[in-house]
């Protein structure tokens, strides 16, 4: 049977490029090693491979479409989306891939609008300027290297996602320091592909959060629809929690109502104040995770324990973890554990410390780590409360050099990529600030209210409220931009936001 007239030249070229794609070839070549490791079974392996094949095909289709024009813009992307029945977010995700592989150059263009009342300037999204390199993809041979480059350049946030998805289980993350077993690594680059510190299309993340077909303009807190100040009414939680206990109450409700099978978070290990990831299986486990921890904890590293069966998983974590999860959702490659995530419960985070740095802070405050009862960051100070009733403080600026270096390049205070974000900044002592970001987050919050599990007020009704939250979030973004710019001038690798 002749294929002439049934298969177009462009399609054949696309299939050839896709089969030549490094990411596809490595997975095909390493089938045996992957199946022998037993992280993924044969069906899951094929699901991942074929999804990757499909996405690579779409990526090259977009590349050739853009290549037909001198310059591209948003209108051109919309035309491509319509032609291929894709939503704009999917097309943008392909564009970001092409950009990260140096096949196109993308610039976001903004108008600057002066806000006279606040004496500030706001950037309003205008259009995209896309330039195609017009190089044959086979000449570029984009290689996705293992995340060793992220570890070595001190950009790794320690979220643990790479450990939780590596198909041959060859990444270790101890005390925030990553190591790859080179003998076992098959160079598939899956870790690189999903890591939030390689490239992170923040505009796309915000667009997906807002569930809009427009590219949003930059904002201080990311997209949110509602803002509250709240505290738990669950006695066991309020007796143990640090602020309002809302993240624990979310998990308490989800387990109680059988809306999840598992939850991932951080509990204390046998070493005082050294957290470790915990896979919660029942409501009672939630009480093991209460209290704020300032030492890095790679919760997502446990995700590969849940590949075996379809389940419903909630994850409580800091902003860099929420970015990993939302990036994984956008670039869905049918990784089973990632598809199990049904709730992303984000907590606010200014910075985190290694365990050694935490011990140094204890030294500076002349307190034994065994005597620490509670820690807190508030009003520019780090607080330690001791079992013997003392309150010890040190200004943050005196310990900020002890924070993890990767936190310097973190732009996100409020877990902008979560379904619901929870923290203390903006609310009075004993209360949490809550930002509702997605429909799922809204439903969850409304269920807590309906079941009389929380007290809630509008964030507008409390002091210091939204102005302080926006101020702290903006200062984190500014600090991040300064560090990224400085590293760039020193030719040091930074995440591509
Ligand atoms: S940021 Fe997360 S995914 Fe990236 S290297 Fe570090 S632990 Fe792995
Ligand atoms: S370390 Fe990264 S590149 Fe190597 S096998 Fe694991 S996921 Fe693939
Ligand atoms: S500051 Fe950012 S990178 Fe550091 S732990 Fe917090 S969320 Fe992660």
Architecture blueprint of SSEs:
Elements lengths: L8 H12 L1 H8 L1 H7 L4 H26 L3 E2 L1 H10 L4 H13 L3 E12 L4 E13 L4 H4 L7 H5 L8 H5 L5 E4 L2 E4 L9 H5 L7 H9 L15 E7 L2 H4 L7 H11 L5 E7 L6 E6 L32 E5 L1 H12 L5 H4 L1 E7 L7 H10 L7 E7 L2 E6 L4 E5 H4 L20 E4 L8 E5 L2 H12 L3 E5 L6 H25 L8
Parallel strand pairs: 7-9, 9-10, 10-14
Antiparallel strand pairs: 1-3, 2-3, 4-5, 6-15, 6-16, 7-8, 11-12, 12-13, 14-15
Helix pairs in contact: 1-4, 2-4, 4-6, 5-6, 13-18
Bound molecules: iron/sulfur cluster (3 copies).
One iron/sulfur cluster (SF4) binds next to α9.
Notes on the protein architecture:
- This protein has 497 residues and is of the alpha+beta class.
- The protein folds into 2 domains: 8-142, no CATH class; 226-489, no CATH class.
- 37% of the residues lie in helices and 20% in strands.
- The chain has 19 helices and 16 strands.
- The protein has helices spanning 9-20, 22-29, 31-37, 42-67, 74-83, 88-100, 137-140, 148-152, 161-165, 190-194, 202-210, 235-238, 246-256, 319-330, 336-339, 355-364, 396-399, 439-450, 465-489; strands spanning 71-72, 104-115, 120-132, 171-174, 177-180, 226-232, 262-268, 275-280, 313-317, 341-347, 372-378, 381-386, 391-395, 420-423, 432-436, 454-458.
- An 8-stranded mixed β-sheet has the order 8-7-9-10-14-15-6-16.
- Strand 14 (420-423) and strand 15 (432-436) form a beta hairpin.
- The protein is globular.
- The N and C termini lie far apart (49 Å).
- It binds iron/sulfur cluster (3 copies).
- One iron/sulfur cluster (SF4) binds at residues 147, 150, 156-162, 173, 178, 195-197, 324.
């Amino acid at each position: 049977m002749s294929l002439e007239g049934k298969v177009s030249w462009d399609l054949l070229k696309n299939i050839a490029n896709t089969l030549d794609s490094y990411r596809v070839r490595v997975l095909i070549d390493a089938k045996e090693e992957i199946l022998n490791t037993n992280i993924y079974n044969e069906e899951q392996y094929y699901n991942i491979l074929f999804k990757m094949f499909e996405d690579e095909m779409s990526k090259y289709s977009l590349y050739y479409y853009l290549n037909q024009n001198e310059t591209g813009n948003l209108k051109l992307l919309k035309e491509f989306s319509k032609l291929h029945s894709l939503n704009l977010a999917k097309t943008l995700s392909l564009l970001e891939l092409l950009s990260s592989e140096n096949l196109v150059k993308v610039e976001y263009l903004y108008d600057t609008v002066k806000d006279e009342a606040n004496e500030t300037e706001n950037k309003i999204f205008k259009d995209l300027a896309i330039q195609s390199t017009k190089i044959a993809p086979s000449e570029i041979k984009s290689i996705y290297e293992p995340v060793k480059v992220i570890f070595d350049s001190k950009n790794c946030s320690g979220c643990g996602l790479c450990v939780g998805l590596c198909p041959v289980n060859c990444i270790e993350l101890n005390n925030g320091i990553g190591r790859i077993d080179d003998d076992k690594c098959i160079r598939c680059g899956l870790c690189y592909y999903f890591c939030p510190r390689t490239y992170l299309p923040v505009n796309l993340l915000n667009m997906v959060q807002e569930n809009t077909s427009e590219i949003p303009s930059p904002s201080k807190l990311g997209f949110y629809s509602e803002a509250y100040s709240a505290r738990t009414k669950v006695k066991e939680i309020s007796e143990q929690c640090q602020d309002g206990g809302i993240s624990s109450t979310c998990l308490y409700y989800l387990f109680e109502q059988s809306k999840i099978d598992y939850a991932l978070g951080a509990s204390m290990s046998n070493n005082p104040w050294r957290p470790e990831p915990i896979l919660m299986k029942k409501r009672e486990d939630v009480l093991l995770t209460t209290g704020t921890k300032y030492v890095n904890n790679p919760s997502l590293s446990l995700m590969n324990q849940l590949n075996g069966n379809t389940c419903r998983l909630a994850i409580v974590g800091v902003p860099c973890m929420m970015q990993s999860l939302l990036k994984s959702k956008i670039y869905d490659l049918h990784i089973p554990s990632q598809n199990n995530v049904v709730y992303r419960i984000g907590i606010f985070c200014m910075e985190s410390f290694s365990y050694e740095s935490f011990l140094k802070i204890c030294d500076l405050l002349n307190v034994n780590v065994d005597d620490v009862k509670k820690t807190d960051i508030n009003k520019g100070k780090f607080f330690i409360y001791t079992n013997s009733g003392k309150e010890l403080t040190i200004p943050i600026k005196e310990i900020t050099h002890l924070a993890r270096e990767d936190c310097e390049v973190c732009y996100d205070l409020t877990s902008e990529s979560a379904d619901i974000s929870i923290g203390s900044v903006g609310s009075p002592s004993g209360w949490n600030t809550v930002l509702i970001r997605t429909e799922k987050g809204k439903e969850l919050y409304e269920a807590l209210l309906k079941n009389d599990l929380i007290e809630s007020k509008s964030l507008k009704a409390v002091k210091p409220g939204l102005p302080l939250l926006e101020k702290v979030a903006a200062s984190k973004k500014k600090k991040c931009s300064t560090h990224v710019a400085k590293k760039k001038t020193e030719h040091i690798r930074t995440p591509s936001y």
